[in-house]
Amino acid sequence: MWSTPRLGPLVVGQALAGGRVSALARGPGQVQVTVALGDGQPVVFELVTAPAAPGPFAALPALSYRPTPAGFAAFRAVGDALASALAPHWPAITHVAWPDAIDGLGEDVAATLPLTALLSDEALARRACVAPWTRLEYGARPTIGPCCADFQVAPAAESGAPLALWHGPAMRGFRRALASADAGATCRASCPRLRGRTDTLATLVARGGPAAFRANQIAVIASILDGAERPATTPLEVVFPATSFCNYDCLMCSHGATGTLADERPPAFYAALAAIAPGLGRIEVLGGEPLASPVFRAVLAGETFAAAPQLEVALTTNGSYLTPAELARYRHVRLGHVTVSLNAATAATYQAVNRGLPWARVRPNLDALLAAHRAARNPRAITYSMVILRANLHEVEAFAALAEADDVAVRFMLPMHDRNQQSILTDAAAMDAAQAALATVAARLRARGRDREATRADGERAVLAARLARGIVRALPD
């Protein structure tokens, strides 16, 4: 079931025979109308396409009600009025096409609707990965594609404006491969997104917003179902590094040693993004350290995307720039997600792995971010991220416990390459230990109802298990 502000002739807040409509909801083959009686007590009325037995309201026998402490006499008049209002619209009112359901979310940017409520199981399973139809990612080399270049068979060395790349040969190739169930033509078997099935129609959630945004979401979903190679859409998400520069020198990452502000995205790039902003739901900004870019910080503090109220900004950051003062500068930004690369559960391991600011300097920034998250009317989602290395392998479970204590999401990633001889992929015993730790973490996450995070952990674990089973003991992405 999903909430809706309008249902046939009814709107939330409408007076009805001495009561008031307080909520409207619909689902496959059914609708619910909650009416607050004069004394404030709610009564939930239900209307289904094929009722098991006739209800007590003569004007519409398909209408019934949920058990309630209120006596029938207290809401009979409300039920009769409701039946009379809905009868001309039944049974059509219990049927809703998925495009109409998404369009029905309206302008409310907080309204959401999972596709699992709209599409059949067959449709939901139609694509192993939907990223080629939803997401455009700029790599650091430069490369482009629907995901991280490390998991692409042959990353395309392309650059340019988002819309031109979206319709270019590289993205068309990914769509062609995924539509024909030939993911191996473009995607490495080591891709945890593909293995974990974390980017499917079943994981997509439609959102409310301006009409252009809703229309683009509808067109994107239709293009996924059709397997369109050249969809008449714009991306729902664009991912890009703001700069390769980073003020840290993490054991597993070369940005701290080789990154430079000379490659930061220029103002013209953000102007090109603004041009497709009406259809965008999210930009995800990476690095290096994205907040090290003066241009990006200026864009973030400015009004570039103010005309697109649905547009969320996601950051992957080490957190060193997210001081309380900087967070105040960005308070108008719809920060949809902040992933903080912590990579450690203790101060000593944090310093050893990240080789940047000490934990004592970063923890207050996290506390400010958490406080903003709890206070925001548009809550910011936060994830603590760990790349599993030899140096922090012993803290995998403790890291998950840290995220649980701070009530944030947790993400684990396998290292790419073998910088500083830190890859666990070159040691079968370390791989097995990581696999066991991830299994424990995934079980704990599921017990807490964090299924999506558990699925991500299982995706990384599946890569380890597959490589161990095949005797592959070497660094990714090979």
Overall description:
The chain is globular. The protein has 478 residues and is of the alpha/beta class. 35% of the residues lie in helices and 17% in strands. The protein has two domains: 2-96; 121-469, TIM Barrel, CATH 3.20.20. It has an eight-stranded mixed β-sheet. It starts with a strand and ends in a 9-residue tail after the last helix. It has 17 helices and 18 strands. The chain has helices spanning 72-86, 98-103, 121-124, 131-134, 162-166, 169-179, 192-196, 211-226, 255-258, 267-275, 294-301, 324-329, 347-354, 359-375, 396-405, 428-447, 451-469; strands at residues 2-3, 6-7, 10-11, 15-16, 19-27, 30-36, 42-48, 63-65, 112-114, 135-138, 144-145, 205-207, 237-241, 282-286, 312-317, 335-341, 381-387, 409-413.
